[in-house]
Design goal:
Blueprint lengths: L6 E4 L8 E4 L3 H10 L8 H12 L19 E11 L16 E2 L1 H4 L9 E7 L2 E2 L8 H5 L7 E2 L12 H18 L17 E5 L3 H14 L1 E2 L5 E2 L5 E6 L22 H7 L5 H13 L8 H13 L6 H6 L3 H13 L4 H8 L1 H24 L8 E6 L1 H10 L13 E9 L6 E7 L2 E3 L9 E2 H7 L14
Parallel strand pairs: 3-12, 4-7, 5-11, 8-12
Antiparallel strand pairs: 1-2, 3-13, 5-6, 9-10, 13-14, 14-15, 14-16
């Protein structure tokens, strides 16, 4: 059946990255996926996730047990990584039938507390190059950007981060600060920003770069110093050549994704009473559009943006989209897993998983060297990645913690790395997703042995192409 799957790369603004159009006779594929013998049996999580996407039944994925996330006295925090979605933005897709909103100067001027200079570190492959040597998102998909209404006459475009979005990331930075920075400088990282200790990478897109800046501004805003940003220079943010970006599903970087299928064919294959199809069709009928080529994610985009910015939404639209947060996730997973769960994971977040492991291994190596020499050294202890909803979802799928809801603006996955105070070879990882502590697969508690953590992901790592020659 997969030989009949064709694919299209659609550089679209649906998620601020690429929309993967997945062409698939879905129900037939689901049956084949669950019954066909492969070289590797599907895990219970994969099986349950795929079934949930089709049926809406999610038993077995989420546990209601209370998780003890109390700090363990026998462990020392030695490193942290965070992966987050950008903050609230203007819509990428305007919903037909709804009057377009107008953005005020307050919406687009930015959040004052997040303002700070930045220095972009532009990379082509693994080499630092001048800015003119690589392409940004605007260079690649700039012709798809639409101008939106503004009450002040200022320029507003689709997909633009707003002051509310900047504030969301600033608040996230302040929240994480409480966990890794201490006013007496006894925390994981010092109070003053130092690029030798804090690494930051963003996709080469205005809204993710501004989100990264806002996060760092919140992280280094000190209440002890009237909430002023504690930094001696600009925030350094690494960006890569956008066509080769591996922080979101990108068929240019991973051609295997071309074997995935489209929303149109997904929905044409579902029977008319399927809840996904009924929900999508009800809204399409309401807005009076024929031959709509997109899915629920696109239909929901304008609604989510309006809600984030406190614009009014007609009651009938609210009722028609009330379940879209979950249905969007089901739609995405239904399409994503058409090429196989681990294949999709390796092609979408495999490189990030690889870097995540490299980062943790580097932290441990430097920590042990510091202990052995009894000398303080500067090395990266906090890694920050600013991406998209399609950055967060595959990571959550890979970690087997996806909560069956489309990630909200500023959603994040936080990973902490601990070492035993009595045995430095014994290390642990804890993970929080959507503000909630998680118990990972094959782990008995919130603190997962690092060896188990890595074992869980062994089929999902993918060395970044930029490092292939190293």
């Amino acid at each position: 059946m997969r030989q009949n799957c064709h694919s299209v790369l659609k550089w679209s603004l649906i998620t601020g990255t690429s929309t993967i159009l997945l062409k698939l006779c879905y129900e037939s594929f689901l049956k084949a996926t669950l019954t066909t013998t492969t070289s590797r049996s599907m895990s219970t999580y994969e099986n349950t996730l795929i079934s949930w996407a089709s049926t809406g039944q999610r038993s077995g994925l989420n546990s209601n047990r209370e998780i003890d996330a109390k700090i363990r006295d026998d462990l020392q925090l030695i490193g942290t990584q965070i992966f987050f979605r950008h903050g609230a933005r203007t819509p990428l897709h305007l919903l037909p039938g709804l009057e377009e909103v107008s953005y005020s100067k307050e919406h687009i001027q930015g959040y004052p507390s997040s303002k700070w200079d930045i220095k972009l570190v532009t990379k082509l492959g693994n080499d630092i190059v001048s800015k003119d040597k690589i392409s940004s998102a605007n260079d690649v998909i700039g012709d798809r950007i639409r101008h939106l209404k503004s009450t002040s006459g200022d320029k507003v475009v689709t997909g633009q981060l707003t002051a509310i979005g900047e504030k969301q990331l600033h608040n996230l930075g302040k929240s994480i600060r409480k966990e890794i920075i201490k006013e007496d400088n006894s925390g994981l990282i010092p109070m003053v920003y130092d690029p030798k200790i804090v690494y930051c990478r963003s996709t080469y897109m205005d809204r993710t770069i501004a989100s990264a800046r806002s996060f760092l501004a919140g992280l280094f805003s000190s209440t002890k110093h009237n909430d002023e940003i504690q930094a001696k220079g600009p925030f350094e943010i690494e960006v890569h050549h956008f066509p080769d970006e591996d922080m979101f599903p990108n068929t240019h970087a991973f051609p295997i994704l071309k074997k995935c299928v489209s929303a149109v064919q997904l929905y044409s294959s579902l029977h008319d009473e399927h809840d996904l199809k009924k929900a999508r069709q009800a809204l399409i009928n309401h807005i009076g559009v024929k031959d709509y080529n997109h899915g629920i994610v696109e239909l929901y985009d304008d609604i989510v943006s309006r809600q984030a910015h406190n614009f009014s939404i007609p009651e009938d639209y609210i009722n028609l989209t009330k379940d879209f947060e979950i249905l969007s996730a089901r739609e995405f997973i239904s399409m994503a897993t058409s090429i196989g769960f681990d294949v999709f994971i390796r092609a979408t977040c495999g490189p990030l998983l690889y870097l995540m492991k490299e980062n943790f291994d580097s932290i441990k190596k430097n920590y042990l060297e510091e202990k052995q020499t009894n000398m303080n050294k500067s090395y990266k202890k906090f890694f920050v990645y600013s991406g998209h909803d399609t950055t967060v979802i595959p990571l959550a799928m890979a970690l087997e913690i996806f909560d069956m809801r489309w990630p909200k603006y500023a959603s994040y996955i936080l990973m902490k790395y601990f070492v035993s105070k009595t045995n430095p070879e014994e290390t642990y990882v804890s993970v929080n997703y959507a503000d909630e502590p998680q118990i990972l697969s094959n782990c008995d508690s919130y603190y997962c042995p690092y060896s188990v953590f890595v074992k869980n992901l062994e089929n999902r790592f993918e060395k970044p192409k930029a490092l292939m020659n190293n």
